[in-house]
Amino acid sequence: MDPIPVGEKAPRFHLPATYSRIMDTRDFQGKKNLVLIFCHPADGSDENTAYLGQVRERAAEIKATDTEIIGISPSNQRFQSIFVYRNNLPFAFLIDEANSCAEDFHALAEDGSIAPTTYVVDKEYIIRMAERGYPEVSLILKALEGAPAE
Fold this sequence. Notes:
Blueprint: E1 14-17, E2 21-24, E3 33-38, H1 46-57, H2 59-63, E4 67-73, H3 77-86, E5 92-95, H4 100-104, E6 117-121, E7 127-132, H5 137-145
Parallel strand pairs: 3-4, 4-5
Antiparallel strand pairs: 1-2, 3-6, 6-7
């Protein structure tokens, strides 16, 4: 299934996150743009870890656009919290063990595994970028340039 098209409303979420938090769409709508990164760090993929490292290196730039970065993974909370800590990631991960959020965002492969997908969602909860795989961070920043300002 292809990612949700640009211009569409993004699905809602309400999930536990790393470090024993709960994150909900209402925490951000009207307040922050979102970069949502669907991936599966537990798969041990060098490509996945390298991509999250690229995002980490440019996180300050991304966050300067009034944007929250959120990873979303089916890994359990303990594993994901350790992964975030060990890789010094300056953003939380939602814990989507049932893959319900990944399914809502069309981020599942045909076999039911996570299909790495990145979305940029503006403050009005409209999708501004939807890319399968590991898009260049410059594409994320370009999409955020078109997101509505406060």
